[in-house]
């Protein structure tokens, strides 16, 4: 299997036919919620409807909601021996995440919040009820209550498990505003995604080591608080849990969940500890490459994969600005159609052209895995080589997307690659609440590498660089281990991959000019609070 410009272009055009912008249906969350509520009442169903679950691919829901990002700050201390990359250390890290995922999901259910995703030590959730513009303050209040409940639940669970071995603090970011909800998954693997600056900004506020609850200026203003100013100042402003919050926030509404209820739930976790750890008895096996044959629905703690592999993060640079521009100019159908085509193409390059496996989309970012070798060992040198060529093909496919799809010529793609032993499994409450998980130092490092790249850069981690052949190393700057504009034509020619076919397969794309949405979007600071991003789900 290999990449070709002809095949990539055909896939992109086919994706556009699957979800063309003229069939994309855009609906306000409030309208969808009211419709589902009416149907539930007619069917004598007292349960609250789930308007953001199983959204059809051709639909987009415009949501006024409060985004909450929770980071378990103690996770990396669990991985403190990760330099040795042992199965035992990874097993402990997975037990840590499995326990806290399960506990957090109990609070999510209590609040009837929408859990978007767990990604390593980070939870993304959104509060969307009560609906309506007039209820934004109540949603922010509920988000604060939810954040405090999560923090207390994590603390109580940590104290109850293994004599406090899993104790951790939390750092929580909160932002409110309008975003677009879509579903990027299929069948039993839905992937709810929220596109726009609120999710992105909440993630930025949660990014750090100092615990606490951090409010964006938008959330502060809704509560009648003074704005903090810059992102740096907002990151320093802690909503103090120990002293009942910031006094200038005013009086919060009636508490949605009591301390007694949290103690009761944490006691349930404690009583269920034996069950949790029986379920969290992680048993590892190798998966014989190619990784594209991994079936996530068959994975569980007792049936988990552990093997050396490459983790790839590929993020669309500038996409949050593009989303905010499309929201402001009512170009959501074009956005949804473009996003659908880009995601399908990047995933196809990974899976069909290079035998890799997608873990998930995190907002506009693809996380994928690649490995070459046998049932007994991973060929690390060849794995790095194939991964670099895969990343180069992703860039070439993205360049084709920029020529074919309208309005995205100003976007870029930033890619991070790292090698290391990595477990792959499913965690959390069984059934529909369980989540795919691939977490390791290689995963964390590849994400950080991608985050540090510009939209024309590919970065290779230190371990991947060390395992790479000299010809692969020569593609990257020896100091930064980054390469600019590394596309399939360059990689295939310089790495002698199908060298006789390289010119025919990888004809370079010509990037045309766009309507200049970046310049126009930048004129509205209120619509764009941040400059892209890579951590939101």
Automatic annotation (TrEMBL):
Coiled coil stretches, renumbered: none
Species of provenance: Mesorhizobium newzealandense
SUPFAM superfamilies (alphabetical): Nucleotide cyclase
Protein name as catalogued: Guanylate cyclase
Guanylate cyclase domain span: 66-206, 310-430
Higher taxonomy: Bacteria, Pseudomonadati, Pseudomonadota, Alphaproteobacteria, Hyphomicrobiales
């Amino acid at each position: 299997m290999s990449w070709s410009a002809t095949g990539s272009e055909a896939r992109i055009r086919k994706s556009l036919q699957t979800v063309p912008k003229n069939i994309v249906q855009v609906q306000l969350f409030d309208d969808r919620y009211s419709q589902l509520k009416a149907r539930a009442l007619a069917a004598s169903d007292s349960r609250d409807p789930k308007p953001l679950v199983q959204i059809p691919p051709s639909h987009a829901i415009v949501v006024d909601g409060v985004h909450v990002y929770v980071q378990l700050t103690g996770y990396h201390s669990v991985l403190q021996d990760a330099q040795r990359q042992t199965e035992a250390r990874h097993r402990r890290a997975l037990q840590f995440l499995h326990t806290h995922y399960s506990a957090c999901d109990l609070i999510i259910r209590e609040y009837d919040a929408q859990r978007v995703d767990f990604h390593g030590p980070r939870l993304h959730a959104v509060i969307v009820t009560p609906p309506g513009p007039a209820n934004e303050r109540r949603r922010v209040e509920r988000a604060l209550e939810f954040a405090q409940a999560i923090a207390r639940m994590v603390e109580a669970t940590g104290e109850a498990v293994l004599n406090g071995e899993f104790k951790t603090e939390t750092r929580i970011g909160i932002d409110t505003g309008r975003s677009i909800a879509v579903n990027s998954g299929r069948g039993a693997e839905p992937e709810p995604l929220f596109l726009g600056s609120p999710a992105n900004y909440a993630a930025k506020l949660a990014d750090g080591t100092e615990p606490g609850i951090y409010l964006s200026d938008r959330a502060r203003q809704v509560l009648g608080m003074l704005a903090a100013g810059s992102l740096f100042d907002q990151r320093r402003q802690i909503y103090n849990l120990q002293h009942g919050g910031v006094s200038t926030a005013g009086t919060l509404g009636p508490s949605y969940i009591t301390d007694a209820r949290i103690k009761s739930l944490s006691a349930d976790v404690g009583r269920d500890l034996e069950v949790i750890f029986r379920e969290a008895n992680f048993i590892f096996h190798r998966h014989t490459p190619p990784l594209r044959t991994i079936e996530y629905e068959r994975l569980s703690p007792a049936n988990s994969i552990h093997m050396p592999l490459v983790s790839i993060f590929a993020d669309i640079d500038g996409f949050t600005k593009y989303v905010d521009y499309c929201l402001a100019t009512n170009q959501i159908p074009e956005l949804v159609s473009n996003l659908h085509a880009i995601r399908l193409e990047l995933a196809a390059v990974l899976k069909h052209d290079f035998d890799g496996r997608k873990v998930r989309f995190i907002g506009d970012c693809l996380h994928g895995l690649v490995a070459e070798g046998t049932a007994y060992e991973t060929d690390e040198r060849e794995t790095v080589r194939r991964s670099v060529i895969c990343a180069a093909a992703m860039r070439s496919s993205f360049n084709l997307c920029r020529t074919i799809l309208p309005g995205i010529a100003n976007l870029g793609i930033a890619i991070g690659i790292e090698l290391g032993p990595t477990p792959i499994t499913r965690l959390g409450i069984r059934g529909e609440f369980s989540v795919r998980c691939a977490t390791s130092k290689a995963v964390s490092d590849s994400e950080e590498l991608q985050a540090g790249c510009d939209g024309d850069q590919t970065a290779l981690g230190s371990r991947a660089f060390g395992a790479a052949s000299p010809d692969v190393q020569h593609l990257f700057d020896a100091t930064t281990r980054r390469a600019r504009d590394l596309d399939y034509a360059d990689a295939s020619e310089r790495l002698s991959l199908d060298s006789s076919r390289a010119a025919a397969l990888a004809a370079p794309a010509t990037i045309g000019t766009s309507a200049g949405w970046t310049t126009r979007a930048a004129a509205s600071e209120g619509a764009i609070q941040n400059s892209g991003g890579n951590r939101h789900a």
